[in-house]
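Researcher: Batch entry, complex prediction.
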Amino acid sequence: MPGAIYAEGLVKTFGDVRALDGVDLDVPEGTVLGLLGPNGAGKTTAVRVLTTLLRPDSGKAVVAGIDVLKHPNEVRRSIGLSGQFAAVDEYLTGRENLRMVGRLYQMNARAAKARADELLERFNLSDAADRTAKTYSGGMRRRLDLAAALVVSPPVMFMDEPTTGLDPRNRQQLWSIIQELVAGGTTLLLTTQYLEEADHLAHDICVVDHGRVIARGTSDQLKARTGGERVEVVVHEREQIDPARAVLAAFAKSGESPAAADSPSGAVTVEEHTRKLTVPVTGGAKLLAEVIRELDTRGVEIDDIGLRRPTLDDVFISLTGHSAEDSAAESDDPGNSKSAAKSAKSTKEARK
Amino acid sequence: MTATTEAPQSVAPRPRGGIVQSTTDSLVVARRNLIRMTRIPEVVLFGLIQPIMFVVMFSYVFGGSLQVGGTVSPDVYRNFLMAGIFAQTVTFATAGAGAGIADDMHKGLIDRFRSLPMARGAVLTGRTLADLVQTALTVVVLAIVAVLVGWRIHEGVLKALGAFALLLLLGYAFSWIGALIGLSVRTPEAATSGGLIWLFPVTFISNAFVDTSGMTAWLRHIADWNPFSATVQACRVLFGNPGVSESSAWPMEHPVLASLIWSVVIIAVFRTLAVRKYRSATA
Ligand SMILES: Nc1ncnc2c1ncn2[C@@H]1O[C@H](COP(=O)(O)OP(=O)(O)O)[C@@H](O)[C@H]1O
Ligand SMILES: [Mg+2]
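Model: C-alpha cells for the complex:
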C-alpha cells in the first residue's frame, strides 16, 4: 500500500533546467521523510508539486490517498504547508493571520477563533498575538507560519527548510515543535540543507541533487556510507602534526577511502595552517577517550579535540566525489543562462 | 513551549462549494485587505491627495483657457471637469490592486492561499472588493472637495447616485485589469508603474478633460468609443453638468447603457483571465 505521500517519476522542467528529473518518493503514514540537498537541488519544486501549487510535466503524486493532479482541492483539505519563506501577512496581527487561515480552511468563525487562540498559546505567541507580524523576529514569524500550517491539524505536513536562517535557540525550539507533531501521528515531508537536521528529525532521508534522488535510507545507513563520525584534533605545535597523524591513523575506520588503502595515515586529513587533523572513525565518545589517552601517552599536546558528525558536504563528497557547494554552483549556472535566454526571447518578441 | 499533546489529525471541513463559499472566502480576503489599509493609512491618504490636486490644478490652471461648449469660463470648466476627475480617480484603483497582488506573490502569500481549500477566485475578488471600498471612500471625499470649489448637480440625487454607481463599477472593472497585471509581473514596483502607464492614454484620449469636438477625426473616434468616455459622458448627463458631447457615436448617444456594457465586458474578460493566471501563478 502506498504511503501518505507517494510520488512516482515526477519531472518538472523550467526551460533547460530539469528541476525534477524523475523523483520517486514513498513516505509511510506517521513517519518523517527528510529531503536533503543543496540549493537548487529541486527540493522546493518537489514540495510545490506535492502541495498542488505546481503541475509536473509528468509523473504521479498521491497525498493522503488522494491523487494530487486529479483532485487538488481535496488534497488541500488534508495538508498543511510551511513554505521556504514565512508566508504571513506582516500587516496583520498574529491572531488575525491565524483566524484568516482558519476561515479559508472553511472553519466557521467561532472555530477559527478558538483554534487561533490555542495555536498562539502553544507556539508561545500569546504575548505577541495582537501585534502586527511586521514586529516579529525571524523565529516568531517562522512559528506563526508553522501555526498557520497546523490550523486544521492536517494528517500530512510539508515544511520547506523550516529552520534555514534561524539561530540555534530558535532552531532547537522548532525542532521540538516538529517532534511533538510527529509524535501525534502526522506524516511529514521536510526539506533541509543540514544533515544534522535530517538526522535529528527524519526517519528516512532522500539525498537530492540536480532533481534526482541520489541516495536514500535511514540516517544510520547514510552515515555508514559516509563514514559516520569524525575525530577532529587541533595540536598545539606544528611539529606535533606527524606524531598525531600516526596516532589517529590507528583509529581510522578501515576501507574508508582509496587513499587509506595505500597507507593507513592516508585516511587522516591535515590542515597545516590551523594544525587541524581529521579522521573518520566508528566508536563514538568511548573512542574519543581512547584517542585522548593515546595522544597523551605519546606526548602530543592538544588545543582542541572533538567528535564531529558528518555534514551534508561529507555526504556529498562520499556520494558524488564533489562537495555540495560545487554542486549548487553548477546548478546555478543553467538557471542563469536560462533566464538570459528568456530575456533574449522577450526582446525578440518586443521587436515584432 | 507548552507541552500540549497534538489534537488528533483532522481534515478541513468539506468546502460548501458554489456561490456561498466564493462569497464567504472573498469576504474573508476583503476583510484582510481592509485591515491592511487601516494599518498603512498613508496609502489611502495619498490616494486621496492625488485627485484633489488634480481638481485644484485643472480648474485653476486650465480653467481659464479651455473652451467647453463654446464658452471659456472657469466655472463652466470646473463643472465640466468633475466627471472626468471622478472617472480618472476610480481607474487608479487598478494600480493599487496590481501592486497589492504582486506584493502577495512576492511574499509567498499567494502560495499559502493556493494551498488552502478555498474558492478559486476569492483571493482576487477579495482584493478588488477591498479596493472598491477604498475607491468609494476617495470618491466621497473628492465630491466634498468638488462642491467646495463650485461643482453642482442639477438632475436630482437619484441620478447623481446612479452616476456614482457607474463610476464605482468602472473602477471595479479596471481593478480586474490591475489584478491581471499584478499576477503577470515579478515585483510590486513593476505592477505599480505597469498599472499606471496605460491609464494615461486611456484617460487623456477621452472626453474627460477637453471637449472632443476639437480633436482630429480619428482621435475623436477613439475618444468616442473609449470605455472611459462612456462613463464620463453618462456622469455629465446624470449630474446635469455642461459639456455633454454631441457626437453621434453610439456610446455617446447612449452613455449609461454603454458604460454598463463596457464595465461588464471588462469584468467578464479580465476576471476570467486573472483567475486562470492565478491558478498557475508562480512567485
Ligand atoms: N519558477 C521557476 N522558474 C525557473 N526556474 C526555476 C523555477 N523554480 C525553480 N527553478 C529552478 O529549478 C531548480 C530547482 O529549484 P528549487 O526546487 O527551488 O531548489 P531547492 O529548493 O532545492 O533550492 C533550480 O535550478 C532553480 O533555478
Ligand atoms: Mg528551496
